[in-house]
Amino acid sequence: MNIIDADTIIEIPFFDLDPMNVVWHGNYIKYVEVARCNLLDKIGYNYDDMRNDGVMYPIAKMEMKFIKSATFGQKIVVKAILDSIEPSLDIRYEIKDSVTGEMLFKAKTMQIGVDFHSKTSIYEAPERFRKGIECLNI
């Protein structure tokens, strides 16, 4: 599989800051979620498509490494990189300053496929998900 990734640019809003005037740590999860949604849109298989296919992909595991704090007004680039879709959806993330390229944050998520109705795990990605990736690998 070729590397499939998506970049998202975010300008840090004032309301994401903590009392120390840096981005509150929990907001980094929000930033990677925005990037993950953009990656899924690029593939052509987003959360609405999953729901229509009767599957969901809840987060089972998340690893985070905070390197340097982001600040108010800073423009960051959040890169989401698809590692695999079977047996789990595995995505890596990098957050960098958009001007200097300095690394601020890294993360990984593992999401488990679950049948929406039976609530049992699935280990093969839905066909439309696989086809979306195939189209990008041509």
Describe the structure.
This protein is an alpha+beta fold and 138 residues long. The protein has one domain (4-136): Hotdog Thioesterase (Thiol Ester Dehydrase, Chain A). The protein has three helices and seven strands. Strands 1, 2, 3, 4, 5, 6 and 7 form a seven-stranded antiparallel beta sheet that branches. Strand 6 (103-115) and strand 7 form a beta hairpin. The longest helix has 17 residues, at 27-43. It is elongated, with a radius of gyration of 16 Å. It starts with a strand and ends with a helix.
Record keyword descriptors for this entry.
138 residues; Thiol Ester Dehydrase, Chain A; seven-stranded antiparallel beta sheet; 38% strand
Binned strand content: 35-45%
Distance between the termini: 10 Å
CATH H-tier superfamily: Hotdog Thioesterase
CATH-defined architecture = Roll
Radius of gyration: 16 Å
Instruction: Indicate the low-confidence ranges by residue numbers.
Output: none
Number of self-contained structural domains: 1
Query: Which class of secondary structure composition applies to the elements?
Result: alpha+beta
Overall 3D form:
elongated
Number of distinct beta strands: 7
Order of helices and strands: EHHEEEEEEH
Remind me, CATH topology?
Thiol Ester Dehydrase, Chain A
Give the helix tally: 3
- Could you tell me the mean pLDDT? 96
CATH class: Alpha Beta
Q: Please give the largest β-sheet.
A: 7 strands, antiparallel
Percentage of residues in helical conformation: 10-25%
